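Budget justification, computational time. The allocation requested in the original proposal was used primarily to generate structure tokens for proteins on the priority list. As evidence of use, we reproduce two of the resulting records. The first is shown immediately below.
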Amino acid sequence: MSTLTSTRIPAGTEPVRRGPRLSGLNWLVWHQHRAAFWTLIALTVLAVGWMTYQRGQLTDQLDSIAGWPHPKADDWDMKVDSGWLTWTGAALGFVPVVVGVFLGAPLVAGDLENGTAKLVASQSVSRVRWLATKLGITALVVVPLTVVLSLVFNWWWQPVKGRTTILDWTSGTGFDTTGPVPVALTLFTLVGGVAIGMLLRRTLLSMVVTLGFAVAVQLVWSYIRLDLADIVTVTTRNGVGENDFPRLPGSAYAVDQSYLTANGDLIGWGSCAEATQKATDACLKDKQVIGWSVDYIPFSEMSSMQWFGASVLFALTAATMVFILFWGRRRLL
């Protein structure tokens, strides 16, 4: 007959249970770029603290001048000081550029330039796995930080969101810093910088070229931003006097406006900009102008525009990552 015996571990000598720790290639990537990662984390914490404080300042201001959240006057937004909100939104617009230049460009270019890539490849680590780990660890740091910045800035902006006199929602300051757009722009600029660094193989040169790439992305994006919307057209047929302009929904963005003629044609609203009111009226009568035609984007379109634009950027990011892995597998070293 056998008996089970147990060994009692002396007090104070129990094994210490540790949480999950990075090891192998994951640890190497984190350790190699930890200075950049911790800098991004620290800057994000400072930015969140600043925006949280300013949110409190804004709500106090709204409560004192407008009785927020139930304003007592329709023109309460004219009394709100939106300086810090605008400046912070503009500063957040540089996040994709900074991440692309100072993190994306050196991510692979630095290893290719100093020979670390060859050392890693000699340790039975495939090129694809090395690149995938580089991109994965970096994305796991960048994406949550960008999401947090987007959410906190949107929270700060929320009490006055939609009031174009405070912050125009169609501008980059508001549109590009909330929702999925900042995440998509940052990821695309990041992987674009990685691809540039992989091709040029020189850190400083890659950073300069990535800067140009990031600026170009911002310019192109600002040019096509409003094209993401479904334009709504409203027409009137009761003349073009001072009180005859069509009333648009609150915070709507007017894209274009034209005169509507009796036969349904549209002519530019400046085509009858004469020196005198009498001459203007004669021109309108001669052209048989009977009303307005206005193209506008309702404020309710903002979210769908952001997700549509972000989906395009995510697709471009995925295509760039496929290129990086394909190129790295065949021609990296």
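The second record produced under the same allocation is shown here.
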Amino acid sequence: MTLRLSTVILPVHRWHEGGRDRWLRAEELGFHAAYTYDHLSWRTFRDGPWFGALPTLTAAATATERLRLGTLVTSPNFRHPVTLAKELISLDDISGSRFTLGIGAGGNGFDATALGQEAWSPRERADRFGEFLPLLDRLLTEDAVTQHGTHYSAVEARNIPGCLQRPRLPFAVAATGPRGLKLAARYGQAWVTTGDPKLFEDGTPEQSVDALRGQMEKLGKACAETGRDVAELDKIMLTGFTPDRGRPLESLDAFVDFAGRHRELGFTELVIHWPIPDSDFAADQAVFERIATEAVAQLG
């Protein structure tokens, strides 16, 4: 099974002060895709520069030619399906069919209360996501949509001419719980995970592999219940959030070992963070670029 290697470029640089260069370099290095986080601010970067995901990806689309682009991940925390659909159709068009929407239920980060709302409970997040994703699917595949929901509605929302990618641009659904996995099975062209967050502080790499194996099994069960072959979905792992942390990027050999173990689990795409000095994503740029250009070939 061929493993694809992608990167995530956090939107922390002004476009003309290094931002554009990173996306161009990602294409030069041969990454399958380059993603960015869709947040208003995020964790330790909250008090520093942070730019909008969709404008950044639009700029990246005009600067690159072959690189796939996407979000990891968009969520309902501060978005509405009607306005998001219009932006996605535009971005799909500008990129020439190179856009993938990573999407999940969201969490309790800064985005969760930035619009003045109380943070949603896990149940409410799941309820909202269960309504958000099917409506977005309709908006991206139908010329006009009217739907009245508990949380999200659309009234004669028009999205002509629709996506270049047919029947719509692909969804990469981030999920680990049963409701989210069912949505991934029904609507996803890919599934995304970061591993088991409970293991990040005190777990071991071996425990993480076991947890990921369990998530794969649950995804397979959700697909079977939906009447879908799990092999139809790409399996994407956003790295950096397992007990391994940044160690796989310390050397080419370390990454090849890490990637091989996760390919055996069934992952088809690994995503590594573009190095950011003096942050949780600090890494040697030369090693990172060597991984980008040599690791997949070493996996055979």
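A brief technical remark on that second record: The chain has a mean pLDDT of 97.
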